[in-house]
């Protein structure tokens, strides 16, 4: 016992010594003040918004030096990196999906930076590499996406994104020969390729100002038609809206080529759909689904009738049939009515509709006829998150993946006629998933609302309040958090730790009502839910404040930033990742304006009064803040790094305790999409090293 106490004391002394050595960059302050409806708000670090200035670049270098010097001194950091690398090093693949004669899927042998796209001619055909993103950049920072197959499935439009940016370049490849055409479309963002005849419809923004490609607001998301072989300057403008330059526009064409749809949205929820009958030669669009109070997704058509997934007057969503020639809402027919569970997604394949419902944040999948007759519930092999069930209209066999917190994606085949599910591909792992357990609990939030939370840990751990615990959340944008696997998380669980994921309001776990309860004026409910989750874990002896970390990314970064400024006493370690942290200016950058439907905008007085209450940047005051490592990336053009830069500077200036306040700025990386595995491993290693070290926990490696 004395030896254990001595080791703990030694770690404490080393930790305090390391804290004392931190010497943050002297971040200059400017006298910028903005008047919001009579309230003057200082913005002393606004100069950090200019990510191209020499001063900002020097600040980034100086901050990274402090951060990586600190991390380098953690004695077991290299051992954690090795274990995380070993955990990621297993073969894995996605569920195959058929397009024409070929089945497409991605595979990773283990430690490849990007998964490789393969295809087979028939499911038993010879496997061939179709597209290998790893050949596009030495560092593995280029990622590939499939934008759309031609109607005859002979060609594919695909996109390439570099360094994690949302900006993409679109190319075209012949499927059978894998020969790339000369077609090249630039300044594409948030767009698919909707094929018709010898070309396709796509969307792109105005060309941004040089040097401001990753920060300036994006405007005029216009729809064009590109004919194969033409240069981009010859593309035909199909749809634009000069009166509303901040709207998103996306094109879709039905599989039979009969209809063109334009999907219009003002933000991240609520849309409008207009359509044109391509067989008549008319250029006129008609309103099919009115905006912007509801969400609509056109799944397919049967002649003039459109099958649509929507939450129109159905908060838990349903499937309706719309007559293109008589699209007034009074004529819509429910074919799969709303249920008490959320209809999370619908796919069309094999002449059937496959509906995925969420029951307490786990997947349940049902097969329906195209007319809405329930044929069966598909017997999933275990509780978890299912995805797939996509393919062609004449498919007989489909494939899907199933994952959980402690098991990566396992691939199954599904026979549409018989309902038989067979194992297709199971990953080989370096740990035994049966050593761990997952439970779901309900706890009470501040206003009395019952909120569910998943808790994952090794079987047999003692609930004595000493377990290092990571609490993760998101709570926004109508996004549901369901069980998924993360290899690095096993480092926590292997060392007697606990992983908790709270299904906060603002998400879609229980339909649109759950979403609305955590957006706009109700946003504080999300933070209350998260704080209550932390209090539950402490009360039930899973952990204590001295062993509790919180983590979230993007909107989840806002969550962490808000909670650590509201309750700095409750947590030991905080990880606000690529967070929306300046709630008064988020809408000034790239596509931030699209989030106003979720948050409100400081341009509106009522919204300003709400936003200023919880904006993490503006609620920092002198206090003893938890150990904090902010993570961001220099090519993040979704949530620009200025959020994290300003938050870090303000937090460092107001940290009155000895806990480190660091910012880790990744280079040649973006918001997270397409990130090479090597960078993922590096960040995971630093997060768990920082967490363990500041909790005084020595991992067993």
- How much helix, percentage-wise, in residues? 10-25%
- Spatial gap, N to C terminus: 21 Å
**Strand percentage:** 25-35%
The total of helices stands at: 11
Largest sheet: 8 strands, mixed
Overall number of strands:
39
CATH homologous superfamily caption of the domain at 2-86 and 431-695: Alpha/Beta hydrolase fold, catalytic domain
CATH third-tier fold name of the domain at 2-86 and 431-695:
Rossmann fold
- Poorly predicted tracts of residues: 1-19
> Which CATH architecture of the domain at 2-86 and 431-695 is right?
3-Layer(aba) Sandwich
Average pLDDT taken over every residue: 94
In spatial order, strands of the major sheet run: 32-33-35-34-36-37-38-39
Summing up helix and strand content along with how strands pair, one would put the structural category as: alpha+beta
Assigned CATH class of the domain at 2-86 and 431-695 = Alpha Beta
So what's the overall shape? globular
Rg, Cα atoms, Å:
26 Å
Notes on the structure:
- The protein has 701 residues and is α+β, with helices and mostly antiparallel strands.
- It has a domain at 2-86 and 431-695: Alpha/Beta hydrolase fold, catalytic domain (Rossmann fold, 3-Layer(aba) Sandwich), CATH 3.40.50.
- Helix content is 19%, strand content 33%.
- The chain has 11 helices and 39 strands.
- The longest helix is centred in the N-terminal third of the chain and has 19 residues, at 2-20.
- The protein is globular.
- The model is unreliable at 1-19 (pLDDT under 50).
């Amino acid at each position: 016992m004395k030896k254990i106490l001595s080791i703990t004391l030694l770690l404490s002394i080393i930790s305090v010594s390391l804290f004392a050595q931190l010497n943050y960059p002297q971040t200059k302050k400017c006298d910028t003040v903005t008047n919001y409806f009579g309230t003057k708000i200082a913005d002393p670090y606004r100069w950090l918004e200019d990510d191209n200035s020499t001063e900002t670049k020097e600040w980034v270098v100086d901050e990274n030096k402090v951060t990586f010097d600190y991390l380098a001194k953690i004695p077991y950091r290299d051992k954690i990196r090795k274990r995380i690398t070993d955990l990621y090093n297993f073969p894995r693949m996605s569920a195959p999906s058929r397009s024409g004669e070929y089945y497409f899927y991605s595979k990773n042998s283990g430690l490849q930076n990007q998964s490789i796209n393969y295809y087979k001619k028939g499911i038993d055909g010879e496997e061939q590499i179709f597209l290998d993103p790893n050949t596009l950049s030495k560092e593995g920072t280029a990622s590939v996406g499939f934008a759309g197959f031609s109607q005859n499935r002979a060609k594919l439009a695909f996109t390439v994104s570099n360094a994690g940016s949302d900006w993409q370049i679109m190319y075209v490849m012949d499927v059978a020969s894998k020969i790339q055409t000369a077609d090249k479309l630039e300044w594409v963002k948030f767009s698919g390729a909707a094929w018709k005849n010898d070309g396709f419809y796509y969307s792109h923004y105005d060309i941004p100002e040089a040097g401001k490609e990753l920060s300036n607001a994006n405007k005029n998301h216009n729809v064009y038609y590109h004919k194969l072989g033409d240069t981009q300057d010859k593309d035909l403008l199909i749809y634009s809206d000069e009166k509303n330059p901040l709207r998103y526009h996306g094109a879709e064409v039905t599989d039979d080529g009969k209809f063109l749809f334009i999907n219009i949205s003002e933000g991240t929820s609520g849309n409008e759909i207009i359509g044109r009958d391509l067989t008549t030669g008319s250029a006129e669009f008609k309103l099919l689904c009115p905006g912007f109070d509801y969400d609509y997704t056109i799944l397919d058509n049967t002649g003039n009738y459109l099958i649509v997934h929507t939450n129109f007057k159905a908060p838990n969503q349903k499937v309706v049939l719309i007559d293109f020639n008589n699209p007034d809402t009074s004529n819509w027919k429910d074919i799969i009515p709303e249920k008490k569970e959320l209809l999370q997604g619908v796919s069309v394949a094999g002449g059937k509709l496959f509906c995925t419902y969420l029951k307490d944040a786990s997947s349940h999948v049902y097969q329906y006829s195209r007319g809405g007759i329930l044929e069966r519930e598909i017997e999933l092999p275990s509780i978890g998150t299912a995805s797939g069930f996509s393919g062609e209209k004449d498919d007989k066999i489909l494939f899907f993946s199933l994952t959980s917190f402690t098991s990566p994606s396992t691939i199954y085949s599904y026979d549409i006629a018989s309902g038989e599910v067979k194992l297709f591909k199971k990953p080989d792992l370096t740990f035994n998933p049966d050593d761990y357990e997952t439970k779901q609990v309900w706890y009470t939030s501040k206003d009395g609302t019952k909120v569910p939370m998943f808790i994952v840990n090794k079987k047999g751990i003692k609930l004595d309040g000493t377990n290092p615990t990571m609490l993760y959340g998101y709570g926004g944008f109508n996004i549901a958090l369901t069980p998924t696997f993360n290899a690095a998380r096993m480092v926590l669980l292997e060392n007697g730790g606990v992983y908790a994921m709270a299904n906060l309001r603002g998400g879609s776990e229980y339909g649109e009502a759950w979403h609305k309860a955590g957006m706009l004026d109700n946003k504080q409910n999300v933070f209350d839910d998260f704080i209550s989750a932390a209090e539950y874990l402490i009360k039930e002896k899973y952990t204590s404040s001295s062993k509790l970390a919180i983590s979230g990314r993007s909107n989840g970064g806002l969550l962490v930033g808000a909670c650590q400024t509201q309750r700095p006493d409750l947590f030991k370690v905080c990880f606000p990742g690529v967070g929306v942290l300046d709630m008064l200016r988020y809408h000034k950058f790239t596509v931030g304006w699209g989030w106003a439907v979720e948050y409100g905008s400081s341009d509106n007085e009522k919204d300003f009064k709400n936003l200023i209450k919880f904006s993490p940047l503006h609620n920092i005051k002198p206090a003893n803040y938890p150990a904090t490592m902010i993570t961001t990336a220099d090519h993040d053009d979704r949530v620009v790094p200025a959020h994290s830069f300003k938050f870090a500077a303000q937090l460092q200036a107001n940290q009155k305790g000895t806990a480190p306040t660091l910012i880790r700025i990744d280079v040649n990386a973006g918001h997270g999409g397409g990130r090479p595995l090597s960078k993922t491993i590096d960040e995971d290693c630093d997060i768990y090293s920082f967490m363990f070290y500041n909790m005084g926990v020595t991992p067993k490696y």
